[in-house]
Amino acid sequence: MKITLFPGGFQLVKNYGGYKGVDIWTGQEFLDELKDSDYFIGHSGGASFAMRYASNQTSKFIFVNPLIKKRSLPNLFLRWLKFLIFEGIEKKKIIPAKYWPYALKKFLKLKRINFLDAIKQMPKENLIVIRGKQDNFFCDEKSAKIIKDNNIRIIEVEAGHDWNENIAEAVNEIIFML
User: Fold this and answer.
1) pLDDT of residue 161
2) Assuming Cys at both sites, which of 65, 66, 123, 156 could form a disulfide with 47, CB separation 3.0 to 4.6 Å?
3) Containing domain of residue 150, as a range?
4) What does the DSSP assignment read for 17-52?
5) Largest CA distance in the chain
6) Where residue 51 falls among pLDDT bands split at 50, 70, 90?
7) What is the pLDDT of residue 54?
8) What is the mean pLDDT of residues 61-69?
């Protein structure tokens, strides 16, 4: 089984427990061997990147705390600051500062994707969203309601926005136990 992971904003694939993936925030090339995967996992901004491969109608997509609602850049920046203050992220998870200009350009490009419109076009049986119940910053309760209102399967776990063991367990259950 082939699995490809796209990490959350300004993070590296190695933070996600051994999945193969693409360090999209550092400019790593997307190898052809990963493009035809059985599962694409996208965390946060990485979910928007994974949408490029949604045309592969046989692959399954797991989106973790995706950016469902379109928000302005100042709004996203404010949410990011709140996330850092109230939830935090380990410094070792963040990409080196030398990649920040590239990552910011990549994020601005991905921000243009209307994620909700894109997932509405996907076969519902190939899509699942995992949401951290304590994600009050990006995939909040309003986003969860939008997901549910559009009949998209959602699993809510004890987590915030950042990837943790509960999210990892839910991903593994989807992939290896269904």
Assistant:
1) 97
2) 66
3) 3-177
4) SS--B--TTTT----HHHHS-SEEEEETHHHHHHGG
5) 41
6) confident
7) 64
8) 95
Q: Which amino acid is at 46?
A: G
Count up the domains in the chain and report the number: 1
E-only strand ranges, 60-177: 60-64, 127-132, 154-157
Helix (H, G, I), strand (E, B) or coil at 157: strand
- Over residues 98-107, the mean pLDDT reads 94
Mean pLDDT of 138-164: 96
Beta pairing, strands 39-43 & 60-64 = parallel
pLDDT at residue 65, as a whole number: 98
C-beta neighbour count of 28 within 10 angstroms:
13
Mean pLDDT of all residues in 42-59: 83
> What mean pLDDT do residues 41-55 have?
86
Separation of alpha carbons 146 and 58, rounded Å: 25
Q: Which of 152, 94, 88, 148 lies closest to 119 in space, CA to CA?
A: 152
Please choose, from the candidates 139, 156, 134, 48, the residue with its C-alpha nearest in 3D space to the C-alpha of residue 88: 134
The owner of tokens 């809510």 is 156
Domain CATH code at residue 93: 3.40.50.1820
What DSSP element (H or E) covers 106?
helix 100-111
* CA distance linking residue 44 with residue 103, whole number of Å: 14
Phi–psi pair at 90, nearest 5 degrees: -65, 135
